[in-house]
Amino acid sequence: MTARRLGLYAASTVIAAWVLLPLALIALAALTPREELYRWPRPLWPDRFTAEGMLFFVHQARVLRALWNSVLVAGLTIALALGLAAPAAYALVRYRFRGREALQLGILATKMFPATVLSVPLAVVLIRLNLYDTLFGVALVHTSLSIPFVTLIVASVFAGVPYELEEAALTLGCSRLQAFLRITLPIALPGLAAAATFTFILSWNEVFAATILTLDNRTLPALLIHSVLSEGAPLYFRYAGGLFLVLPAVVILLLIRRYLLTLWGVTVR
Amino acid sequence: MAEIVLRNLRKTFGKVVAIRDLSLDVADGEFLVLLGPSGCGKTTTLRAIAGLEVLDRGTIRIGGRDVTRLPPGKRGIAMVFQSYAVFPHMRVYDNIVFGLRMRGIPLAEQRRRALAAAELLQITDVLDRYPAQLSGGQRQRVAVARAIVMEPDVLLMDEPLSNLDALLRLHMRAELKRLHREVGSTTVYVTHDQVEAMSLGDRIAVMRDGEIVQCDTPQRIYDDPANVFVGSFIGSPPMNFLRGVLDGAGGIRLGDTVLPVPVAYQPALGAQRDPEVLVGIPPEHIVVGAGPLVAEVVVSEPLGPSKLLTLRTHGQLLKVTVRADHPAAPGDVVHMDFPPAHVRLMDPKTERALPRTGP
Known about the structure:
- The complex is a heterodimer.
- Helix content of chain A is about 75%, strand content about 0%.
- By secondary structure, chain A is mostly helical.
- In chain A, α1 (about 1-30) runs antiparallel to α12.
- Mean pLDDT of chain A is about 85; it is low at about 265-269.
- Chain B folds into 2 domains: about 5-230, Rossmann fold, CATH 3.40.50; about 240-345, CATH 2.40.50.140.
- At the A-B interface, α8 and α9 of A face β6 and α2 of B.
């Protein structure tokens, strides 16, 4: 029993370290004074902590613009993905129709195509549609990337709202739409918010499509990749950018972890 | 006036027939109970009246108005769901006035009706709580209050007591009966509990396989079940059925004992060709102590106010209710008699009651 426990803790520690160690290293490096970063051997624990790397990163005009772009793209993605996935999820949960299961499978099957394979045709299509190097184009791609997950998440959220509640609203004089807006939507709201933040992280962290499909209107990850790969940005810039990218995701995941876990059928108090 | 007229309803789910061909009239102000085992179509029938199921065919009229194609909110009905379906994100008060708000009833009137209903159901002091803070019984009262503030022509209830514990159920049953007397709405009530049906209904419609088998007052259903199914569903324990043979000379042979054919059956049984009959007798009407039938006591169960015996006679088991202080013990041999006035004969092939004349 104790041996099993020990093994469990050991495994948990290894997995946690695997995820957390790089994050910790990035954070330490980002808060290390510039000159110390180039010292050899570089100390793991800096002599003093400083925010000058972070400030330098944030104060660059193109960084600010890319940050704003990222937020815009993420916002657009959330609106588009929820707007498209929520009705689909509602229909999948509430109605029995021909081809329902095939559709469900089909939605997931879109995840089988690697984005790398699709990137060139995608760029061609976006150029044809005059959407190349636009934020809307990137948001469209992010939307299509997130729709399968969002549909799945939102469907499970809607499934958690008993249909009898909507039926009760119908008998009390609601139309179907009113019943949805007044009963199901408010009850599902926390779950929908979780789905929205999940979409935000997905778009915020997405680097491949954003890099391929933009030149000037880069999102933050695309800008970082570009400056690291093509411009050979200095170390302190890289670390600061890394930490800056990771932070929102970590904070948001901490906030919504309860909902993410309930999605997989586990309830945590 | 809000009588309900159902004509030739049919509803199928894929290949499953939920309602076969159902016609039923419910009078204005009547309390009608739909009773039957699970899967008999009683809930589907109720939901069809509510407008929550789309029928394959048939018409539904409420108060003379054809509502077959109207949405639930326009039928003049209110419904109490089995799970109560109380809205969890609204306070009790907002739950109760939800329907009135949807109707655009003035605020003062909403308040007046909500308070009256809360008073009637004794939930006045929980009006600003959320449903999660209520007990099951209180939630149930909220669901009923939410329905009756609508002052519906027709009140529909789908097993409203089935989620309550036994004691509370007994209490709420009487409450519902009082409520019906005070509100006076035509009520259709679905249950699988025959005691509930007997105690609440002005009439009971017993359903089986999507059809109404018998629709009558509780007493007449109890006294004169239309077939073996109804007889073995009503009563606790239900009616006993023993296989017997008509001897052609005014008697029924049970093994080597001969019982007289009750007078009420004598005119009809002359034409009866099949000599086999099922002899139905309610457990509380069997006389134990004297009589032509001999039986062995198999089980004796004291129930407090009475005692339930399981007897074996000529290879067939039957249940008998006797006084609590009856001395019969397992292994004893007792004599018993079936009073002819309480004997009900059924055709073993069709399982229908044989025609009776007189009272």
